[in-house]
Each structure stands twice: as C-alpha cells, then as structure tokens.
Specification:
Elements: E1 4-7, H1 15-26, E2 30-33, H2 48-55, E3 58-62, E4 71-72, E5 76-79, E6 83-84, H3 95-98, E7 105-108, H4 111-125, E8 130-133, H5 141-147, H6 149-158, E9 163-169, E10 186-192, H7 195-201, H8 208-220, E11 225-232, H9 238-252, E12 261-267, H10 272-281, E13 295-298, E14 304-307, H11 310-327, E15 332-336
Parallel strand pairs: 1-2, 1-3, 3-7, 5-8, 8-9, 9-10, 10-11, 11-12, 12-15
Antiparallel strand pairs: 4-5, 6-7, 13-14
Length: 337
C-alpha cells in the first residue's frame, strides 16, 4: 500500500483513474494532484536520501501518452508499458538509472488504449506470434492487486490469435491473478537468486520461500511457469548458493509440474552511470562495482557495461546449465546473457 498518491487531471477521465481515487480516498491515503505523471514535485524528505525512499512509497496515477512500444530482446519483441518504477530496493537494478530522478511508481490508467496498440503490433506481424514483456520498466505484480491492469492484459491476450504475454516478479501477491482466464498464453516468471544476493541486495521484496510458494500457486492455476536467475553474482560460496537455489526449487514445486518450466540466466552487469546512482542511493552496499575486475562490453545507447571476464562467464554458464539438467531435465533454457 503506497503512503501517498499523486493523480494527474486526465486520469479522472478513465474508469480506472476514478476507481483508484475512490479506493485510496476510502482508506485515508494522502492524495495530491500533479500536472503530469512525469512532473511530481515536493516529495517529503530533508535530503536526497530521504526523498528517494519516500519516492519508493509513492504511486502516481497518470495517462500513458507515448504508445510506441520499446523493443525487449531477448525476452520478447515489445515492452508493454502498464507501469513504470518499482517499490523494491534492489541495489543492482537497471531501473536505478533509467528512472533517474523519478524513482516513484507510475501506473497508467488508459489500459484499453495500450492494449489496442498491442493489437496493432500483432496485426502487423501476423501470422507470426508477437511476444510482449510487461515488466521491463516495473515489477507490475507489486501493484496489480491495486490496479488489476495486468489481470486485464492477461485476459485480453488470451483472446488474441497472435499474441503472448510474459512478465517477471519478485513479489508473492499473486492470488488475484489465479482465476484469470489466461488460456495458457501468459508465461508467469519469478526472479530468483542465491540467498546471499536476496539477503544483501534485494530489500523490500518477498523472500525466496514466498516467491516459490507463489510460483506453485501459479503453476497449479495452469500458467506456463518460468524463472529468471538474475543477476548471477559471484561471491564466496556462489556455487553452493546457486545449487541450494535449484535444490529448493525442486523440493518446493509440485512434483507434477517440474517439466514445463523455462529458465533465463542473466549475469550481473553495471554501467558507470548506474554505479554513481547506486553508490548515492545505497552508500553502504556490499555490491562489487570494480571496473578493473570486469570485461567491458557495448550496451544499448552507446554506453559501456561491465560484465564478468569471459572465463568467469563460461564457468557460470556451464555450472548453471549443469544444475538445470540435473534438477529440471525437461526445462527449457531460453538464453544466458
């Protein structure tokens, strides 16, 4: 539940905007108005440190004006923009830089317009299947118990001939999605990691056990299930930590549902702009951000990113593929990057 709400005037023109206003008014949540969901000002706090944390507890209700979807490779063809920002405090998150000075959470109430644009993309690419990723710029599950935008999207995508939906979460709040009419066209993924990474770098998110409990519910509801192991992070005992992760997944998932699972592997990376923001927002972080220990690669928009050395990358990949084959031999590995 957010501590404060900002609503832009145009949001009241949409049913979801009115619904959210009434919902938060009834619960006594502080409500403010803003000229635009990109122009929130005067967040409480005596310094940037406090304002950043207060922003993470702020929900802005607005209208998505830009209906041109970004690409989302290798996960999907397009990013589906239902929300922006996340209430989690993951130290390594790429949203640290893409959100910049606007770390508050934004939800868009013109869902029908967004889905109509998705339909246009599907028609352009038919008869090929078009994949949409709903969690590129947010952890949409973390707010969907309030908005139900994701649930609407799941049910919309189920009725299409050429579209499928994907999203990933670190939150356990999935109960309202279990009865959605998904028709198997949405892959519900959970971000998981070694306990060391979750303990030190993922505050404000659900525990691994809670995520796996939610994953079991999702699988029992008939959704195709996936796990993103990210960021893969080398630390003392990292191999034991990731083996324990796979062992826990194997033991806690329903025995009959271990086959139709996908895995995606993403090694830890950072950019110099991200490093500056991370060290500002989390000055006590234990996250290793030493460029001299990394290999430099070109990233999107011409910014270098720092990934592990090639030999370390190959060691991680070989080890994690071996774990997947041991514990989930029927699972599909979608990519390692």
């Amino acid at each position: 539940m957010p501590e404060r709400i900002y609503i832009e005037p145009r949001a009241y023109e949409y049913p979801l905007g009115k619904k959210l206003y009434d919902y938060f008014s009834e619960r006594g949540v502080e409500i403010n108005e803003t000229t635009s969901h990109n122009q929130v000002r005067n967040l409480p706090g005596d310094n940037d440190f406090q304002k950043y944390r207060n922003a993470k507890s702020t929900l802005v209700v607005g209208v998505r004006k830009t209906l041109k979807f970004d690409t989302s490779k290798p996960s999907a063809e397009y990013a589906l923009p239902l929300a922006t920002g996340c209430m989690g405090h993951c130290h390594y998150c790429y949203l640290q830089t893409t959100m910049g000075s606007k770390p508050y959470i934004r939800t868009y109430v013109n869902t029908d317009e967004i889905l109509a644009r998705a339909d246009e993309y599907m028609n352009e690419h038919a008869p090929k299947i078009t994949r949409f990723e709903a969690s590129c710029t947010s952890d949409i599950v973390g707010i969907d118990h309030l908005t139900h935008s994701l649930k609407s999207t799941i049910e919309h995508m189920a009725k299409t001939d050429h579209g499928v939906l994907r999203f990933v979460t670190k939150f356990e709040h999935v109960d309202h999605l279990l009865d959605a009419d998904h028709r198997g066209k949405t892959r519900f993924r959970f971000s998981v990691n070694a306990n060391f990474v979750i303990k030190y770098f993922e505050p404000g998110t659900s525990s691994l056990d809670k995520r796996i409990e939610a994953a079991a519910k999702v699988q029992e509801a008939g959704y195709p299930l996936g796990f993103i192991v990210a960021p893969i992070y080398i630390h003392d005992g990292w191999q034991e930590g990731y083996e324990q992760l796979f062992k826990t997944l194997y033991e806690k998932l329903p025995e009959g549902g271990r086959d139709d699972i996908s895995f995606e592997f993403i090694q830890h990376r950072f950019t110099q702009p991200a490093k500056r923001v991370i060290e500002k927002n989390y000055p006590m972080t234990k996250l290793e951000l030493d460029e001299s220990k990394r290999r430099r690669k070109w990233g999107r928009y011409g910014i270098h990113k720092y990934v592990y050395e090639k030999s370390q990358e190959e060691e991680m990949k070989t080890f994690l593929y071996r774990l997947t084959d041991r514990y989930f031999p029927e699972a599909k590995i979608e990519y390692f990057t």
